Amino acid sequence: MAANFSLFFAFYVLTPLLPLYMSEHFGAAKDVIGMVLSGYTITALVMRPFSGYLVDSFPRKLVLMVSFTAFAIFFAGYLAASTLLLFTIVRTLHGAPFGALTVANSTVAIDVLPSSRRTEGIGYYGLSNNLAMAIAPSIGIFVYRYTHSFELLFWIALLVAFAGLAVDASIKMPVKMPSGRPTTLSLDRFFLTRGWLLGLNMVAFGFCFGVLSNYLAIYGKEVMGITGGTGTYFMICSIGLILSRLQGGKALRQGRVTHNAATGMVISLVGYTLFILMPTLAHHLSIFNYHCNATLSLGELSTLFGYYTSALLIGLGNGHMWPAFQNMTISVAPNSQRGTANSTILVSWDVGMGLGILAGGVISERVGYDAAFWTVVAINAIGVLTYFMATRRFFLLRNLNASVK
Predict the structure, then answer these.
(1) Higher pLDDT, residue 339 or 328
(2) pLDDT: which is higher, 288 or 113
(3) Ramachandran category for residue 399: left, alpha or beta (phi over 0 → left; psi -120 to 50 → alpha)
């Protein structure tokens, strides 16, 4: 959990500020920013299926240490990149060790968990990921606000990544030899075909968070008029993630992952919808406020209330949904394909994140940020409908773990 938190902290402490960095230092346009940032996710996406194969075929500790070392070293490349081209190359290549590392780390975590508490343990392991998503952007924005130094942020990411590497180096686990399965390569050695619909569902939810995490700061400033609230937004999101563990812990202990998944999806949909509705509601309240000659701005208050409430709801939703989908994907896979199962769910999230980053940049450049975030609501709603109409039954028919339901 500590190593997983470190690797995602190092990643997310830069995420909301990289668009600003590229805009200020390289003069990149919005659509160019989207294309460059999506390169990281695309590379991770390409690497992850092979990572699942490597983790299932070679000593997992070795794969973990090699990928973590490469992931940490790449942060030094951001410090050395002096042009947009060099930055693009470093950022794109950095996705490869990230893709391998997330698969290796989560698979090793599953190996060291006792089977009787694996469902609950995966939930807490996923919480370390979610907490990093929420806390790291807040810290990154706080540091930048008071130092205006991107170089300092790159150093922070570098040091935190090496701290995570040191933690993983201390893990004791038995060396597992290759399983002796047939060496013939097939699609299910790289992608868990038994869980394809679960992966498709995760694409939709990854898309939504991809747009939110990368364009929240710019959207808040240009559309909502909120200049200093992005850090607080992610901090409240982290509170939602913590509360989700308190709410969903009992269900996970009982193996009710489909219940947790459904709860999380619906809460997230409400959160994203509230987020995009706030500017419209604030506009109407401002008109009402003007005609009533009120001294207190109802529009501003409603904007802030909706803005931060959406953070809490999205945090709650993701905290329920992520461990549930990871458990479901692992539960439809045989033990010899745990690495492949992990890579499948992460690949699916990456596809969604990459599409979200790319589409968010293009849509906002040509139509506006409102259209980009309305697209988020639409994609999230499609994901929810798909789950209730097909995905839940799909999982129950293929479930290999009797304790999970």
Answers:
(1) 328
(2) 113
(3) beta
CB proximity list for 302: less than 8 A, separation 6 or greater: 278, 281, 282, 285
Report the amino acid identity of residue 100: A
335/232 Cα distance (integer angstroms): 41
Biggest CA–CA distance in the chain, Å, is: 78
Tell me which amino acid residue 124 is. Answer: Y
What tens digit of pLDDT does each residue of 162-201 get? 999 999 999 887 665 545 454 555 555 667 888 889 999 9
Looking at the chain, how many residues does it have?
405
Q: Which pair of tokens denotes residue 49? A: 């299926």
Q: How far is the CA of 46 from the CAs of 51, 112, 191, 204, 358, in angstroms?
A: 9, 27, 11, 18, 16
Q: For the chain, give me the number of helices (H) and strands (E)?
A: 14, 0
Closest CA to 100 of 68, 57, 59: 68
Residue 167's CB: how many other CB atoms inside 10 A? 17
- Per-residue pLDDT reduced to its tens digit, 337-359: 877 887 788 788 878 887 888 88
Average pLDDT on 19-38 reads 82
Three-point CA angle 200, 201, 203, nearest 5°: 65
Q: What are phi and psi of 176, to 5 degrees?
A: -100, 125
Question: Radius of gyration over alpha carbons of the chain, in Å?
Answer: 21
H helices present in 254-386, as ranges: 257-292, 298-331, 338-366, 369-386
Site of tokens 């692992």: 330
For residue 362, which of 350, 371, 353 has the smallest C-alpha distance?
371
Interatomic CA distance for residues 98 and 43, integer angstroms:
9
Higher per-residue confidence, 159 vs 347: 159
